[in-house]
Amino acid sequence: MSELKNRIRQDLSAAMKARDDVRKGALRMLVSAITYEERSGSQHELSDEEILGIVAREIKKRRESADIYAQNDRPDLAEREEAEAAVLAEYQPSQFSDEELSAFVAEVVQEVAGENPTMKNMGPVMKAAQARAAGRVDGKRLSTAVRAALS
């Protein structure tokens, strides 16, 4: 079993014992998503990198739901979704600051596109940047930074 998956299961057990409903609910949904991914397709145990991808996807779902609830005057549900996203964010590596992201993108653009980068290099640069970032930056934020660096 991967180290991250084991940690999530232990934290779920601790949340159940502590009767922390928000944490318990968020971790149960995460374990369920991990199990679903493991059983679908080629049926293999996920690596820590694949689990980080699932964590990022689940955080994105929670934040989108919170935005929708907030737009529809349901602050109670929006608050719960944000709390669950915060619980899941504990399992992600530390996120890039704006300065770190700019430096990271400049480095990747230089490696992939060379001296004269153009928007035609967007695909290869994004692919390389996502592989190297490994969950340290949201895809939308990364895309915006790459687009700015290439234009």
From TrEMBL:
Top-level division of the source organism's lineage: Bacteria
Single GO MF annotation: carbon-nitrogen ligase activity, with glutamine as amido-N-donor
Matching InterPro entries: Asn/Gln_tRNA_amidoTrase-B-like, GatB_Yqey_C_2, YqeY/Aim41, YqeY/Aim41_N
Protein name as annotated: GatB/YqeY domain-containing protein
